[in-house]
Structure formats: C-alpha cells, structure tokens
C-alpha cells in the first residue's frame, strides 16, 4: 500500500485554506499611518498658511477626525485584526469633503486651498483602498489576518 493519504477531508482543508483571501496587515498598517499623517497635515495647514476662521475650523475638525479614525484602524491592524470597513469608508467621505471644501469654504489663500484639496485626495484614495481591501478579505474567524 502507498503512504499517501487518501482521506478526502484532508484535501478539502487545504483547498478551503487556499480559497481565503488573506490580507497583509503590515501593508495596510502603512496605508492607515499615511492617512493619519495626512489628517495631521490638514490640522496644521491653516496655521502654516494664511487662513480664514472658517478654514481653520474646517481643516482642524476634519483633520482631527481623519487622524482619529485612521489611528483606530492602525491599532486594529497592529493587533492582527482587519481594519473596520465602516471606519475606512467614513474616512473616505471626510477625505472627499476635504477635497471639495475649498470650493465651498473661503480658505484665505490659494496655497491653503491647494494643500487642503491635495490632502483630501490622498486621504480619500488611500482610505477607499483600505475599505476595499479589507472588505474583500475573508479570513477564518480565529486565524490572524497576516499573510
């Protein structure tokens, strides 16, 4: 007789393991860290460039919210858990708001408007990627998310 296992259950387990779309949480941690830093940039921009009071409030509140939400996902990913898709989606919406806010709010200077829009674009793009990648990952319940 042969020493190879003929148990169909053994083959099914490895086949099932290959079907899971595992996510490298180290990469996603970097994405969340960059988004958090972009949020801090939004907080700092009105104090670096000439800004109206409305622009100061807008960028400070939006940037703080982005920093806290991206930081939350960073902590989740550092604990080998998937990022929250809802939090990443909310961060995407805040990034889109930062992108269009210079057209809605008087910023005080063109440089502030440009940096706010650029920061919003970075936040929206990276957060959308974070939400998409984490929604597609379907790791087993008790297995770590790391690939």
UniProtKB/TrEMBL annotation:
<feature type="domain" description="SPW repeat-containing integral membrane">
    <location>
        <begin position="30"/>
        <end position="127"/>
    </location>
</feature>
<feature type="transmembrane region" description="Helical">
    <location>
        <begin position="54"/>
        <end position="75"/>
    </location>
</feature>
<protein>
    <recommendedName>
        <fullName>SPW repeat-containing integral membrane domain-containing protein</fullName>
    </recommendedName>
</protein>
<feature type="transmembrane region" description="Helical">
    <location>
        <begin position="82"/>
        <end position="105"/>
    </location>
</feature>
<keyword id="KW-1133">Transmembrane helix</keyword>
<dbReference type="InterPro" id="IPR005530">
    <property type="entry name" value="SPW"/>
</dbReference>
<keyword id="KW-0472">Membrane</keyword>
<feature type="transmembrane region" description="Helical">
    <location>
        <begin position="28"/>
        <end position="48"/>
    </location>
</feature>
<dbReference type="Pfam" id="PF03779">
    <property type="entry name" value="SPW"/>
</dbReference>
<keyword id="KW-0812">Transmembrane</keyword>
<feature type="transmembrane region" description="Helical">
    <location>
        <begin position="111"/>
        <end position="132"/>
    </location>
</feature>
